[in-house]
């Protein structure tokens, strides 16, 4: 993998597209399409508060959540940009009840890729100027080219992903992705509008000292999670660990990947599958975690081996430094 620092993202994609099994330039164009939409959304996010793009949009999505104006705007920008790139045959989004079929310009369903997207992650942080993100997951279709895309193309296990990544709109804007050859991070130079390779070959430290969980739900957690949190807080060895929870999955994951830590969104007595969505939150973050020497599980099994059954299904999520995820699985074992 060619990872010379300060390469532009465009140069990096071209330099490395031969490491990709189906090299035809289509995946490169798809990754570049996401980069374009990310810049448009970044521009909007940066002026949140100045112009009327904060607050609720007045609609609820299929999850029963109030859609924020930026959820809707980001959803539109990514869908429009991907539609125009003549590569995608279908898109599924957190903000769309059902998947969207995208036909090729020649009307013969020639496109090969499906994209699953969380257009704006960390919606509860939009209005309070805390970092948010976008998460994406890419698969090759399983139904034959020349036919319309079907649900089967979206309900693939995470271990079939060909690429995944996120954009973080934070103190700087970064694009972090994998195509199954490690994880690389690119930082946007806002003056030039160009992403540069700033974080080559990102790796989770095997051990960490940060745990990220919404402790406000503590009383509703399974006993094993409660015991693990107590373990993190115990004065012993390199503990107590530090509690850090931003409330944006992308941002908590990003920090933990750099510093070493674990992010948890467990099941609760109120939500037996937790909150996070398997297809466009947990699978892409799990692919990145594993490619960065980390680990992701639902407490008992590998996230990427879960056979999906629904577009918006939720799963408990434990993700981060390998030894920390092993430890919480130990506490969760009956
Ligand atoms: O407020 P809670 O219940 O702790 O949930 C926070 C979690 O929910 C999310 O906001 C869910 O994602 P969306 O904002 O895309 O719906 C995660 O980013 C975050 O980690
Ligand atoms: Mg999300
Ligand atoms: Mg979202």
UniProtKB/TrEMBL annotation:
Belongs to the FBPase class 1 family. Homotetramer. Keywords: Carbohydrate metabolism, Cytoplasm, Hydrolase, Magnesium, Metal-binding. Mg(2+) 2 binds at residues 118, 121, 281. The keyword Metal-binding applies. Substrate binds at residues 121-124, 214, 245, 275. This is Fructose-1,6-bisphosphatase class 1. It comes from the Bacteria. Mg(2+) 1 binds at residues 94, 118, 120. It catalyses: beta-D-fructose 1,6-bisphosphate + H2O = beta-D-fructose 6-phosphate + phosphate. Binds 2 magnesium ions per subunit. PROSITE patterns: FBPASE. Pathway: Carbohydrate biosynthesis; Calvin cycle. It comes from Croceivirga radicis. The gene is fbp. InterPro entries: FBPase_C_dom (IPR044015), FBPase_class-1 (IPR000146), FBPase_N (IPR033391), FBPtase (IPR028343), Fructose_bisphosphatase_AS (IPR020548).
């Amino acid at each position: 993998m060619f990872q010379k620092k300060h390469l532009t993202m465009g140069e990096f994609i071209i330099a490395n597209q031969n490491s990709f099994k189906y090299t035809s330039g289509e995946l490169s164009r798809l990754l570049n399409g996401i980069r374009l939409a990310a810049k448009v959304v970044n521009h909007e996010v940066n002026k949140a508060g100045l112009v009327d793009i904060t607050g609720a949009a007045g609609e609820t999505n299929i999850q029963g959540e109030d859609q924020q104006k930026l959820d809707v705007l980001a959803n539109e920008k990514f869908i429009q940009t991907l539609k125009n790139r003549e590569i995608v045959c279908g898109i599924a989004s957190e903000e769309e009840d059902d998947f969207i079929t995208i036909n090729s310009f020649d009307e013969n369903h020639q496109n090969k890729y499906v994209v699953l997207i969380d257009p704006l992650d960390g919606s509860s942080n939009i209005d309070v100027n805390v970092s948010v993100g976008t998460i994406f997951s890419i698969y090759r279709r399983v139904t034959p080219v020349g036919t319309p895309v079907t649900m089967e193309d979206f309900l693939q296990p995470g271990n079939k992903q060909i690429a995944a990544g996120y954009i973080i709109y934070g103190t700087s804007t970064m694009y972090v992705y994998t195509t199954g050859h490690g994880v690389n991070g690119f930082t946007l130079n806002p003056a030039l509008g160009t992403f540069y390779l700033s974080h080559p070959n990102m790796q989770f430290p095997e051990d960490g000292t940060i745990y990220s969980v919404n402790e406000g739900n503590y009383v509703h957690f399974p006993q094993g999670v409660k015991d693990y949190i107590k373990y993190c807080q115990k004065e012993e060895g390199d503990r107590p660990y530090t509690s850090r929870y931003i409330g944006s999955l992308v941002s908590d994951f990003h920090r933990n990947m750099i510093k070493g830590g674990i992010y948890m969104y467990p099941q609760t007595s109120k939500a037996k599958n937790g909150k996070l969505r398997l297809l466009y939150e947990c699978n892409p973050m799990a692919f990145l975690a594993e490619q960065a020497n980390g680990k992701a599980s639902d407490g008992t099994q590998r996230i990427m081996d879960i056979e999906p059954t629904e577009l918006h299904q939720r799963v408990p999520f434990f993700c981060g430094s390998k030894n920390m995820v092993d430890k919480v699985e130990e506490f969760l074992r009956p």
